[in-house]
Amino acid sequence: MSKPDPERYKLAADNRKARYSYAITETLEAGIALQGTEIKSLRGGKATIGESYAGPMGNELFLFNAHIPEYLEANRFNHDVRRPRKLLLHRRQINKLMGAIQREGFTVIPLKVYFNDKGRAKVELGLGKGKKLHDKRETEKTRDWNRDKARILKTGG
């Protein structure tokens, strides 16, 4: 029996389709402002960030459309499931991301939600552009070829 990977254990949500749908040019780590019931629900690992994105609201950056399910034991003090959540970044980072969104047509996509060493919830953000259909096909071809190549090398033939 193998031991569980500690990095995998801390992962709360993963956006696996992001690298397929977007050409990610840069990644950065951001804090996220959450309520108490959201933290407890995130520790359960049922959150989804597949359709979420980060964007400006005023002069701040927020995470939109991230689904953190209700914490069942919280009864009437629960949180709204898809509320916009503030991202905690330095002003220089916010200005850089806002400029890339507005001027250059980039999108800020959350790649992972995880807990760091201190137990704080963090979001790994990726700055990227949407891929066209032919780019997605090319990504799929290289992934399939790498899989086949590894299989051939493993069998030795």
Number of helices: 5
Q: In what range is the share of β-strand residues? A: 25-35%
Write down the secondary-structure element order.
Answer: HEHEHEEEHEEH
- Got a strand count? 7
Q: Are there runs of 5+ residues with pLDDT below 50, and where?
A: none
Largest sheet: 7 strands, antiparallel
SS content category: alpha+beta
- Kindly state the percentage of residues in helix: 25-40%
Q: What is the radius of gyration? A: 18 Å
Shape: globular
End-to-end separation in angstroms reads: 31 Å
What is the arithmetic mean of pLDDT? Answer: 86
Question: What is the strand arrangement across the widest sheet?
Answer: 1-6-7-2-5-4-3
Keywords: Cytoplasm, RNA-binding
Pfam families: SmpB (PF01668)
Protein name: SsrA-binding protein
Organism: Bosea vestrisii
